[in-house]
């Protein structure tokens, strides 16, 4: 961190005063986690949970003050507070038929104290998740999003993994997003709009943030980005069942979740936990995808089932969810992903690309209610 620039930012933040206390946010000890790297500034304001909604203007003022310091290219400020879990409803208590407790409709009320639902202009939001890392979830999410865009849909791709963002590399994007007023403009690639914390920080920057700061950053990636009207948004979730999953289930009306797993038992056990987690927060599980279902030798094409085969299909049947398809372990998929050219866009005529497209088409059928007549025709992606 540049100490001189950091001190200049702190000096600027001393001019931002909390109207309730009359104290500036620095002397009041509200500023936390200030980091400066290559002109990119991130920090948080620690606030009482019950005042979080009322202090949004204070957050915006702090962000403007930091952004106005010479040498600062962009500034991101989040509100952080330790929230208590809401009390469980009485057994058998239900809202309106078919309604989830934390949402009454797009843009409508959310959970108590959390403000309106985010992303009201997005037709369907689909979380691509896994119980554990290393199963190819991000590769699957990127290729599904590109496949949906190739069908003529307006598609957004959100990287919800704050600690380990991978979209910049997988999409071949290195530039920083532009800012229009107080709104961040998403980057465009392969026919879709994309946003990731990785676009705002250096690739090697470690995000040493506590849970509330991560939740605040994720909310900003949804609420302060100029996504515009979209038919569908694919969200690349971090592995596990933590803060990001809870934030997504509470702050946006998820149309459903796709669970990615490999065939072996240890991965399936984690996938099972992922399914149960989404069920507990009343998010529909759209289906399970078996990634690395089999290995194809790049030299002779021989097929080997390195991790077993069919485990995800069997698990989907046991859990009563749809099995969406299987994807191979192919060197070409990995090489193209690392190069920022998803196989669906770079090698559209391959069987692997068709496998992704088939899953994407099925997802769209499920979240759009089968209204295929409203779907635009396919388009060619040129980058």
TrEMBL record:
SUPFAM superfamilies: Fe-S cluster assembly (FSCA) domain-like (SSF117916), P-loop containing nucleoside triphosphate hydrolases (SSF52540)
Family per similarity comment: Belongs to the Mrp/NBP35 ATP-binding proteins family.
Region listing for Disordered, in residue ranges: 84-113
Assembly behavior: Homodimer.
One Pfam family of this chain: ParA
Entry keyword annotation includes ATP-binding: yes
Start and end residues of each MIP18 family-like domain: 7-74
UniProt keyword GTP-binding present: no
Compositionally skewed regions (Low complexity) per UniProt: 90-104
Role summary: Binds and transfers iron-sulfur (Fe-S) clusters to target apoproteins. Can hydrolyze ATP.
Phylogenetic placement of the source organism: Bacteria, Pseudomonadati, Pseudomonadota, Alphaproteobacteria, Acetobacterales
GO molecular function, one term: ATP binding
Alphabetically ordered keywords of this record: ATP-binding, Hydrolase, Iron, Iron-sulfur, Metal-binding, Nucleotide-binding
Residues that hold ATP according to the record: 131-138
Protein name: Iron-sulfur cluster carrier protein
